[in-house]
Design brief:
single chain, 485 residues, mainly alpha, Gyrase A, domain 2, 3 domains, 4-stranded antiparallel sheet, two-stranded antiparallel sheet, 8 strands, 6% strand, globular
């Protein structure tokens, strides 16, 4: 039976204790800790903890403990509870950390990052991702309900229930701009409800009476991109006002000026501009798959994991959300999901080839179920990346799977996901397309099988130097690449 309290206590103890932890956050699969002294972290003991799938970033201030979906939420909450208890008990927590924790834990962007992200671009992408990642659970839940409702409607079953399911599934998407505005202001240091209030202008039906650039606006025009821009502007205006108005006037004038100025800018500029950008994204994605689907799939499936390791995948999160809001599904996620499938195929080849490396084979056996469900970090950081060549050959498998799915898009059979977050087999309940869910599921399954097969074959053929002996092959735990990577 799982004991999240014991796991949280052990993680804190092995990361140098509560006094060494400055900040806590999490993504869909990983507990992320910012530590004051990286040398105080016992990486080996952390890896050996029951329930820990991997450790990333050891030796750096940004430590990531891979726990898997669901588990990470409860363990993170328990870690935060224990840190708060330590603070109340007497002062191991610094004021800097107290200020950070007072903001609440914000999920970090998904995807592996072996080293701390540096540079203004990476930092900006990370913060934008932090806006959208907390919305993923609602996107997943509503996406699955939308898929179920579509199946019931097409089959003509339960006609009395389908209108209710449609309302439940569509309500969040109808107001997603408000949630984006709220999260944006919270992430960038503004008052969350003011960000939500300004973003709410975008979805208010009365905007149809407003004319900008000679045309009437449409409710929802600009979508999540407009909401993001509006809340960012509102945050800047709010900070400007608070730095200049005395306390008595600040209470009244700051929210009024923030909502008024940012609201007018949203109506007479941001909605129009963001709407044009959102339309271009949808048109561009459709054109890309219709005309160069196989090639686009090959690039996206093959390069996604290297992009993730660089942190550049975070720029795709608002694009996914825009496509879901605009078309009902994102055509990019099924292509990108092939990258993880290639890693599964590559890991199976390593398992077959290095028969006498019991440590590595044990790692693969424990990590494969998570990999099949789209949690790829244990396979990447525990198997393919340390060995070097298998990481590249696994990416070849991902490219092949992406090309398979993209080829069918060129034939007019698009595959999309109604939510972002899951991949692998976990994506099946969220699949749909322009021809309905059944063809989309079949094509996606074909893509997974292709990625498994090519990743396996490429790794078996090219993933090891010539003459590598099965009995003397180095373990992934050695952290020494086999041959040039």
């Amino acid at each position: 039976m799982r004991n999240d309290t014991a796991t949280a206590s052990a993680v804190l103890a092995l990361t140098g204790g509560p006094a060494n932890v400055r900040h806590v956050t999490h993504c869909l699969t990983r507990l992320r800790l910012t530590v004051a002294d990286p040398a105080a972290v016992d990486e080996g003991a952390l890896r050996a903890l029951p329930g820990v799938l991997g450790v990333i970033g050891a030796g750096t201030p940004s430590l990531q403990v891979v726990l898997g979906p669901g588990v990470v939420d409860t363990v993170t909450a328990e870690v935060e509870r224990q840190l708060a208890a330590e603070a109340r008990a007497g002062g191991v927590r610094t004021e800097a950390r107290a200020a950070e924790m007072g903001k609440g834990s914000r999920p970090s962007p998904t995807g592996p990052t072996a080293t701390p992200q540096k540079g203004p671009l990476a930092a900006s992408l990370r913060r934008i991702a932090n806006v959208f990642v907390p919305l993923i659970p609602a996107l997943i839940g509503c996406g699955i309900l939308a898929g179920v409702n579509g199946l019931l409607t097409n089959a003509g079953w339960l006609p009395g229930l389908t209108p209710a399911l449609a309302a439940i599934a569509s309500g969040f998407m109808a107001l997603i701009a408000v949630f984006v505005g709220y999260q944006t202001a919270k992430e960038f240091g503004g008052t969350p409800v003011l960000g939500g209030a300004v973003a709410a202008v975008i979805v208010y039906p009365g905007v149809a009476k407003v004319t900008a650039f000679g045309v009437h606006l449409s409710p929802g025009q600009g979508g999540v991109l407009g909401a993001l821009a509006a809340a960012l502007l509102a945050t800047r205006i709010e900070k400007w006002c608070r730095g200049r108005l005395p306390g008595a006037l600040d209470v009244l004038l700051t929210p009024t000026v923030t909502v008024l100025v940012a609201g007018l800018a949203t109506l007479y500029g941001l909605m129009y501009a963001a709407g044009a950008v959102a339309t271009a994204i949808g048109t561009g994605a459709n054109w890309l798959l219709t005309t160069t689907g196989a090639f686009a799939g090959l690039l996206l499936g093959g390069l996604f994991l290297p992009l993730v390791m660089l942190g550049l995948h975070q720029a795709l999160i608002p694009i996914h959300t825009t496509l879901i809001e605009q078309q009902g599904y994102t055509v990019l996620l099924p292509l990108l999901a092939m990258a993880g499938a290639g890693q599964v195929g590559g890991a199976l080849a390593v398992y077959v080839r290095l028969r006498h490396d019991t440590t590595l084979r044990t790692t693969i056996r424990s990590a494969l179920p998570a990999g099949l469900l789209g949690v790829g970090e244990p396979l990447i950081y525990g198997v393919s990346l340390p060995l070097g060549r298998p990481f590249i050959t696994a990416c070849v498998g991902g490219a092949a799977g992406g090309a398979f799915v993209g080829f069918f898009a060129m034939l007019g059979e698009k595959v999309g996901a109604t939510a972002i977050g899951p991949s692998g087999w976990a994506l099946f309940p969220l699949l749909t397309g322009n021809q309905g869910p059944a063809p989309a599921i079949a094509i996606y399954a074909g893509g997974l099988l292709t990625a498994y097969a090519i990743g396996f074959a490429a790794t078996l053929a090219f993933g090891f130097p010539r003459g590598t002996a099965r009995s003397t092959a180095p373990s992934a735990t050695d952290r020494t690449p086999v041959g040039p990577a």
